[in-house]
Amino acid sequence: MSKEWQIQPAVPKEILEQFPELRSLVTQLLYSRGIDSQDRVEWFLNPDYHNLYDPFLFTDMGIAVDRIWEAIENKEKILVYADYDADAVTANAVLQQTFRYLGVDVASYIPDRFAEGYGLNLEAFQKIKDQGVNLVITVDCGTNSVDVAEFCAANEIDLIITDHHEITGATPESFALINPKNPEEVYPDDQITGVGVSYKLAKALLMQAEKVIEQKQIEPEDYQPEWDKWLLDLVAIGTVADCHSLMGENRILVKFGLKVMQKTKWLGLRQLIENAGIDILKDNIDSQTIGFTIAPRINAAGRLEHADVALALLVATDFAEAITLANRLEDINRRRRDLTNRIVSEAREQAELLGDRKVLLLHSDEWAKGLVGIVAGRIADLYNKPAIVLERGDTESTGSARVGTSNFDIVECLKAVQEHLVKFGGHKQAAGLTAKTSELEALYGAILRYADAHPVESGPAVLNIDAELTENDLTLPAYEDVLLLEPYGAGNTRPIFAINNAKVEGFKAVGQTQQHLQLKIVIGDTTIDCIGFSMAYLAPRLDFGAKISVAGELMVDTWQGIKKLKMRLIDVHFEQEKEAQIVTEADKEITEAEKELQVVAQNLSNTAAEINKEIINQTNGETTSN
Ligand SMILES: [Mn+2]
Q1: How far apart are the CA of 416 and the centre of ligand 1, in A?
Q2: Is-contact 452 358, C-beta < 8 A?
Q3: How far is ligand 1, taken at its centre, from the CA of residue 88, in Å?
Q4: Distance, CA 393 to ligand 1 centroid (Å)?
Q5: How far is the CA of 48 from the centre of ligand 1 (A)?
């Protein structure tokens, strides 16, 4: 059924009057994001590269950079140790590109997700030691590796940890620890991600002009003080992929990163984007392009094969190599998508058999460990209840738990049933676990008993609406003003608008299987076209001339050079009485259709570029793929 709409409180008149230069719609959006002073408004609307914090504000940055220059001078072996997700892979690439710019060779080590698991491990460091490495720089990991730090200290390896994870136990005794989440750290922004921290280290090196000039053997006038800007596209990718708040320093990093991406220096990144069907110069590249198109491709390597493939792509130096690697990654990603869809549908078959049990526990020996996290997330959303999805092995079963919108504390639950577990970890909404296969049934029984004792509440399906649009807001200039809020992400989500009491002027089902809804509505003297992906099931409830309210995102459709404002529908509210009549008979059917819709919505890469393609393809009768 449709969701309950919650509209943000209206901006108070006295604040509205402080900003006569802004469209009131924009003031409203800023206000609901907590931005209501002149300074904050300026900072937010005009992110300035020069407002990035000085990397040397990190307590250990000075000693880390000195040590790196010393290693360069002495031609010591340097290695970057990274994790396998998009944040870590881009963080690694940032350092690789920086060292390459300085003419220094550095090695890379990324553990295998399946054989080694996340983070630093002693076996890997034994190998690293045997290779004669004496300086290791970690990116996006290492904060809690007390044992590895000890090993390094005992084996004459200097360990520089750059990370952004919380310190959960003792602080490792490393050579340097650069982590904004370290409670003792004074760096002013704790939201930068693994790639943000590695960029800070890169920038700190590059800021030391004399050293750079000497190392590169260039004339002082050839020193490029802002060369680090070329790294910002990589920084934007990792930052968006890790879903950290885009309100602080990350806003500047991502805003500039997206601009730089259109001119990227990195052949492999360019090829990856083009392989995904995006025209790097003409299409709008935004945080959704990263979230739905770029990051999943980088992550796919580590999920199905090895993250080394993605890193090799991001640091590729020749065109042929970039094409080969990008094609390979595209292929891995296609397999990742197909496999995920297959696992989701098999998991749904299992879930249906579990009826109204409060928690779902699903497993199969055919589900890939690298994908069960994505599947658990989808199943939890789909059924609106906590889901645990495992790859079942002979003796142990490993997988992920997600709680969706429920308030269930999965880690507390796992703690209560840990007698059946080999290991587990995570936080309230998401966890990883390994269970004894012989005890899966007992484990599920214990989880259900825990759930009975700790009722699961899944909140009502609420849609947060940023603002109600009036006729005056439905113009291209208004839309362009709203774009000043980009890039969107955590803390600054893409605005969702409502248009209330509009009149239906036309509607039809479109798309290859008539699955989408095209809707034309009128408010006052303004007509606006809407597109509802996979919402054609609503068509039987529409009537010409009827009053409806719609909620969705604004977008611009360019067709034959003409720009037109459109709304991408998220939800529709019908007139009260009509709704009441239809609910009873159509309820079940619609619930089913909505479940379907959620799956499709998840699958749909709704970058602006792809949405546009979808619409064009409807006209051409072609199929699209995400
Ligand atoms: Mn990270």
Answers
A1: 28
A2: yes
A3: 6
A4: 28
A5: 24
Taking 70 as the threshold, does the pLDDT of residue 598 lie above it?
A: no
Find the 244 Cα to ligand 1 centroid distance in Å.
9
Determine how β-strand 497-510 pairs with β-strand 421-427: unpaired
How far apart, in whole angstroms, are the C-alpha atoms of residue 221 and residue 70?
24
Tokens linked to 595: 């479940």
Contacts (Cβ under 8 Å, ≥6 apart) of 580: none
CATH number of this structure's domain 354-453, picked from the four choices 3.30.390.30, 3.10.310.30, 3.40.50.410, 3.20.20.10: 3.10.310.30
Name the residue ranges covered by the structural domains of the chain: 4-44+462-582, 51-256, 354-453, 590-620
Range with lowest mean pLDDT among 369-373, 442-446, 529-533: 369-373
Mean pLDDT along residues 162-171:
91
Average pLDDT over residues 604-609: 41
* pLDDT number for residue 309: 97
List the CATH code of the domain at 51-256.
3.90.1640.30
Range 4-44+462-582 has CATH code 2.40.50.460: yes
Residue type (1 letter), 382 = L
pLDDT class of 381 with cuts at 50, 70, 90 = confident
Ligand 1 centroid – CA 140 distance (Å):
5
Candidates 112, 109, 104, 114; CA nearest to 92 is 109
Residue ranges of alpha helices (H) inside 227-276 are 232-241, 249-261, 267-275
The pTM for the full model equals: 0.83
Single-letter amino acid, residue 419: E
Residue at 47: amino acid letter: P
On the question of pLDDT at 605 being above 60, the answer is no
DSSP assignment of 483-532: GGGPSPBTTBPPP-EEEEEEEEEEEEEESTTS-EEEEEEEETTEEEEEEE
In the reported structure, the alpha carbon of residue 164 is separated from the centroid of ligand 1 by a whole-number distance in angstroms of 7
